[in-house]
């Protein structure tokens, strides 16, 4: 017998003995030689091309039985089983066709029974991401629903282990996005900082996360939540009410019985669930995050999440269909004002939300008409807070820039125009914006005044653009802009802009060039403000309003003549 054959027999006996009922069979991972033996057997099967099918058939029953025993031992582990199970899963993926083994149930069992308990182990987390990256193509082709189904569990890997796994996770991330996970994935990404806070709460209250299942916490919390709801119904107290030590750190963090907490800690995608941001638990965790120093883990996820959103939005614009993107935009609008209260994080996330929303409108202007109702609702909230004001500004710009959805959506454009009119008249009749208290300091008053002027400029521009695109709205636009021009409010930029737009409307050709649709469309073959120079030798170019575009009065300021730029006949 050769050395190679002796090694084969030795490793096969090792695995066979471990698969039987022996002293260490209750926890196979406790045998330090077992992992090495399984790896060597897999190597033998890959190297022996001539006899590989025979070798695989011989070792498969023992490997399969070992997998089942390892899963059964997870309830009382003495050491992590994740590494051993990943090696066995690799065997199933490599040789499943030879032994007719469907790896899908085994993969799902690994996620539900093992990774849900060991995601906090940095070694298991790194090995899992390496396994997914090595087998990415095979998993996406043979099991396309696997990663989208378990994206909440995979997000825990990056939430808990942070930047050291970021590169590996970014490679896996595109596999998490599918039609079924596209919408639920967005709020889960935005709420990654709160997920970190929730996991840290579990660790403080229940000990190490390694080896413990979040599902058991959910089950144990269910009776407590039921009692709390009954107490609220009969006594009027809320779930978040504490006792005499309500000021302690534990009671100021999120309650394990809170439904939002249970939603955050789930392991599988069960669809888009409404997250109640007004719940006592969420209010408590947000307040606690403001009053206490941030952990290193939380600081890392606050930095990572915007980069994950970049990749998510890139995939969305490249791969998602219009119906999914149209359904996502109202979610973006709702979440714009409900983010984890970190100043830099809110700025980075909101900037990405608005950029994606505007890019979606640019790609499909019809969205503006289809989403008329949520847009009108957001315009009505322009006074509530600075972030809602900024959202309303961007929506005003999009409505005007894309003609309220296009020429085929005249009814929607009219309703959007009426909402802009209402917003304009409210601003003219009142200076309220943001905080409505009577006693405010000068800084707040100046900020409010500046915000109102900016909002008015956006609104009158949108009104002028809509009327240019839909000419049946011109009479109403003249009335609205005339009121602004005659108002002579303190900020001259506002009434001067309204006056300029009224002047433009007297010259339809120039008005169309400056305020017309930004993209070529039916009836408008050219972009605004551009000239078809090839026609310059035979046609008069009459829509180059240099003095208007440069906001200059008097003669044009350019020092060139048309013959310098028009093609000459030869």
Description:
This protein has 570 residues and is mainly alpha-helical. The chain is built from 29 helices and no strands. The protein has helices spanning 3-19, 32-47, 52-72, 82-99, 103-118, 122-134, 136-142, 146-149, 151-161, 166-172, 182-190, 192-206, 214-235, 249-252, 259-264, 280-291, 296-319, 322-335, 343-363, 366-370, 372-380, 386-401, 410-429, 442-469, 474-487, 492-505, 508-515, 546-549, 562-565. The radius of gyration is 32 Å and the shape is elongated. This is AP-5 complex subunit zeta-1. It comes from Gossypium hirsutum. Pfam families: SPG48, TPR_AP5Z1_C.
Question: Helix/strand-derived class?
Answer: mainly alpha
Order of helical and strand elements: HHHHHHHHHHHHHHHHHHHHHHHHHHHHH
Q: Quick check: average pLDDT?
A: 79
How is the quaternary structure best described? single chain
Specify Rg, calculated over alpha carbons: 32 Å
Low-confidence parts lasting 5 or more residues at pLDDT below 50?
A: 221-254, 431-440, 539-552
Helix content: 55-70%
The count of DSSP E runs of length 2 or more, i.e. the number of strands, is: 0
Distance between the termini: 92 Å
- Measured by DSSP, the beta-strand proportion falls in under 5%
Helical run tally: 29
Report the principal-axis shape: elongated
Report the biggest beta sheet as strand number plus sense, adding barrel if it closes. Answer: none
């Amino acid at each position: 017998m050769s050395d190679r054959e002796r090694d084969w027999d030795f490793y096969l006996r090792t695995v066979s003995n471990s698969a039987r009922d022996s002293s260490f069979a209750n926890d196979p991972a406790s045998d330090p030689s077992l992992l090495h033996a399984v790896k060597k057997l897999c190597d033998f099967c890959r190297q022996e091309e001539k006899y590989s099918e025979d070798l695989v058939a011989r070792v498969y029953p023992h490997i399969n039985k070992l997998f089942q025993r390892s899963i059964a031992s997870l309830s009382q582990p003495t050491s992590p089983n994740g590494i051993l199970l990943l090696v066995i899963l690799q065997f199933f993926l490599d040789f499943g066709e030879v032994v007719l083994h469907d790896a899908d149930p085994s993969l799902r069992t690994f996620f539900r029974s093992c990774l849900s308990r060991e995601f906090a182990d940095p070694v298991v987390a790194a090995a899992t991401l390496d396994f997914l990256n090595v087998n990415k193509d095979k998993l996406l082709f043979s099991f396309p629903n696997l990663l989208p189904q378990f994206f909440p569990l995979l997000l825990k890997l990056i939430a808990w282990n942070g930047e050291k796994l970021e590169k590996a996770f970014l490679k896996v991330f595109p596999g998490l996005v599918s039609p079924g996970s596209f919408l639920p994935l967005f709020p889960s990404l935005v709420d990654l900082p709160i997920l970190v806070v929730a996991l840290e709460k579990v660790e403080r209250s229940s000990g190490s996360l390694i080896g413990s299942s979040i599902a058991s916490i959910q089950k144990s919390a269910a009776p407590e939540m039921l009692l709390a709801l009954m107490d609220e119904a009969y006594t009027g107290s809320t779930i978040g009410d504490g006792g005499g030590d309500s000021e302690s750190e534990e009671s100021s963090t999120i309650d394990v019985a809170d439904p939002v907490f249970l939603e955050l800690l789930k392991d599988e995608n069960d669809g888009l669930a409404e997250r109640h941001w007004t719940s006592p638990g969420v209010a408590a965790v947000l307040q606690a995050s403001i009053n206490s120093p941030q952990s290193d883990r939380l600081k890392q996820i606050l930095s990572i999440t915007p980069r994950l959103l970049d990749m998510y939005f890139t995939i969305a614009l490249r791969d998602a269909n219009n119906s999914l993107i149209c359904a996502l935009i109202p979610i973006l609008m709702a979440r714009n004002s409900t983010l984890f209260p970190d100043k830099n994080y809110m700025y980075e996330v909101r900037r990405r939300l608005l950029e994606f929303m505007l890019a979606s409108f640019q790609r499909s202007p019809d969205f503006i008409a289809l989403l008329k109702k949520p847009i009108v609702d957001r315009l009505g909230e322009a006074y509530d807070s600075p972030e809602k004001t900024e959202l309303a500004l961007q929506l005003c710009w999009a409505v005007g820039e894309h003609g309220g959805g296009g020429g085929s959506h005249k009814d929607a454009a009219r309703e959007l125009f009426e909402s802009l009119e209402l917003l304009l008249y409210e601003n003219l009749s009142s200076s309220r914006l943001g905080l409505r208290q009577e006693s405010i300091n000068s800084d707040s008053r100046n900020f409010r005044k500046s915000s109102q002027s900016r909002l008015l400029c956006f609104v009158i521009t949108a009104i002028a653009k809509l009327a240019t695109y839909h000419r049946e709205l011109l009479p109403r636009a003249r009335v609205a802009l005339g009121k602004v021009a005659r108002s002579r409010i303190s900020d001259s930029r506002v009434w001067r802009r309204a006056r300029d737009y009224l002047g433009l409307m007297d010259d339809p050709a120039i008005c169309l060039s400056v305020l017309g649709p930004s993209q070529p469309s039916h009836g408008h073959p050219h972009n605004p403000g551009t000239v078809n120079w090839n026609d310059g030798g035979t046609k008069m170019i009459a829509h180059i309003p240099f003095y208007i575009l440069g906001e200059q009065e008097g003669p044009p300021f350019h020092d060139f003549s048309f013959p310098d730029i028009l093609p000459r006949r030869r």
